[in-house]
Every structure is written in C-alpha cells, then in structure tokens.
Design goal:
The structure is a single chain. The protein has 315 residues and is of the alpha/beta class. It has 6 helices and 13 strands. The strands form 2 sheets. A 10-stranded parallel β-sheet has the order 2-4-6-7-8-9-10-11-12-13, with no helix packed on it. Strands 1-3-5 form a 3-stranded parallel β-sheet, with no helix packed on it. Helix 3 runs parallel beside helix 6 and helix 5 runs antiparallel to helix 6. It is elongated and about 75 Å long. The relative contact order is 0.06. This is Internalin A. Pfam families: LRR_4.
Length: 315
C-alpha cells in the first residue's frame, strides 16, 4: 500500500448522512485524519475528543459550538472563518499559539485550559466574551483582558500571574478563580462591586488590611477568622447569601510557611548559632499555633517572625 492509499484510508466521509440531532461527536478517532463534508450536515455542535492530527477539507461555517479535547496537532487554520461560532473549547491540545482565535469576534465563551499559552494579545478583540477559562497555562501578564469588559467569569488557576490590576476594568465581573499563581495583593479587586466569588487560594497574599471583604459577622468566620472557605465550588455558589463577597484564603498559610522555609534556607548565613536557630524554630511553631487559636492577623504574625529572626541573629 503506497502513501496515498494509506492516506485515503484515513478519511471519514460524512456525505449524505441523516443526522437527527444537532450534535456530531467524534471520539478516539486515531485512524481518521480528514473529515469531509461536515459543512453539509445539519449540525451546530461539533465535539471531537481524544483524536490525533485531524484536519477538515471544508470549514464547518454553520457550527456555533465547537469543542476539541485532547486533540494534539490538529490543524485549526481556517477556523477563523467560523463567524457564527459563540462557544469554543480547546481543552488540552498542546496549543501555544492562538492567532486563529482572535478573529472569532462573536465568541461568548472561550475555554483554552490545559495548554501552553503565554501570550493573550490575540484575544483582546473578543469583546463579546462573557466567560473565559485559561486554567493550567503559562500566563504571566493579563493586560489584554482589560478590554473584555463583558466578562462575568474568569478562570486563571495554575498560571504565573503576579499583577491583577487589569481586572479593575472589568466592572461586570462576578466570579474570579485565580488560585495557584504568584499574587501578593488583591487590593485591585475592591473596586469590583459585582464580584461575588473570588478564589485566590495558594498565592502569596499577606495583607488584607482595608479590604471590604467578608466575614461580616462572627457566624460566617472559620477557625482562622477568614470566613466561608470550603474547598467545594458548588458549596460556595449555593450559599444562601449569594450577593456577599466570598474570599478563600488558604494562601495565608502557604505564605507564612514559605517565610519559615526561607529562614531555614538562610540559616547558615544569618544565624550565628545552631542553638539560636533551634530556639527560633520552636518560637515559630508556637506562634503559628497561637495565631490559629487566637485569630491573630497574619500580617502581625509575619511581623513577629521578623522580630524573632533579628533576635536570633543577635545571639
């Protein structure tokens, strides 16, 4: 069998089919590379999952909902002509470049999670977007998001974001999920009056002073005094007070232990005696325990840690 014959065997011809619903799903099609005549089918939802190196001979321009999941090396060029597309999901496709997405100006929902994206400049013209998911990428700068003023939901978990000031322009933002980044302050969020859910777990936030956030009453506080921090997103969404701003701050504990680890790493250079270092570690452990029991502010806790370090150095 020559190469041409082999290639012909890898064609899925959809001509003259009778599709009864509006959805076509192609799953685990390792033997299919070229999908023909999709544009002639009466469908507006196309789902392709766990397939490899797929291309289309004609762009399915009538589709409004396109979902590609785990389809590496798929040729997405030409998809920018799908001007009726409102929902696009490209989860886990090893994408690093997304130029073709920038021309899909009618998109209202965009899912690009689980890729290798660093640059968001290509999506800054998608001004109709209401929801975007960029979880698990390599994003550091989110400035292009400032132009997407209709955004209501943003997922940016597990990236490398430090500065969230561009989000101040998104006055309609209601839900923000930005855990596991490198954020040190959330003060820019205080101007977002419509923000009701904010997940900033596992960042580097240390100071919450002057932030108009919950808890607003004692019964809303958890054992650390921070309030309503269950790990279940469903529980947060289904709270009986949906208009209350809800902030989840496990990053406080993360940050303070990072400070302790830093002290330990620099022990040989800054602490003169092993005895002084051991005493300081014991004091840190005691301080952490007392803070959790007495609802001591973490900013005060950090200040005391630095005082103990100075004391250990002087020994």
């Amino acid at each position: 069998m020559n190469q041409k014959e082999k290639h012909d065997k890898r064609v899925l011809d959809m001509y003259k089919n009778h599709v009864k619903n509006n959805t076509l799903t192609i799953e685990e099609s390792d033997l299919v590379q070229n999908i023909q005549f999709v544009d002639q089918l009466p469908i507006n939802v196309l789902k392709v999952r766990y397939s490899y190196d797929i291309r289309f001979d004609r762009v399915p321009s009538k589709i409004t909902n396109l979902q590609f999941t785990n389809c590496p090396k798929t040729n997405f060029q030409g998809f920018e002509q799908m001007n009726q597309l409102t929902i696009l999901s490209l989860h886990q496709n090893q994408l690093s470049q997304i130029q073709f997405v920038g021309k899909l100006v009618n998109l209202t929902e965009l899912i690009l999670s689980g890729n290798e994206i660093e640059d968001l400049s290509q999506i800054q013209n998608l001004i109709q977007l209401k929801e975007i998911n960029l979880d698990f990428n390599k994003i550091q700068y989110i400035s292009p998001l400032r132009k997407l003023v209709k955004l209501k939901i943003i997922h940016l978990n597990s990236n490398q974001v430090m500065d969230i000031h561009p989000l101040t322009y998104l006055k309609e933002l209601q839900q923000l999920f930005i855990r596991q980044n490198q954020i040190i302050t959330i003060k820019p969020l205080q101007s977002l009056a419509n923000l009701v859910i904010c997940d900033v777990n596992y960042n580097l936030i240390l100071d919450l002073s002057n932030m108009p956030i919950i808890p607003s009453s004692a019964e809303d506080e958890d054992e650390f005094g921070f309030g309503l921090f269950d790990d279940s997103e469903e529980e947060i969404v289904q709270q009986d007070k949906p208009t209350k701003q809800q902030l989840r701050l496990a990053n406080k504990i993360t940050a303070i232990y990072e400070q302790q680890e830093k002290f330990q790493q620099e022990a040989n250079n800054t602490i003169k005696t092993k005895q002084g270092f051991a005493q300081m570690c014991n004091k840190i452990h005691q301080l952490l325990t007392n803070s959790m029991q007495s609802h001591l502010r973490w900013s005060q806790c950090i200040a005391q840690l630095f005082q103990m370090t100075d004391s250990a150095i002087s020994q």
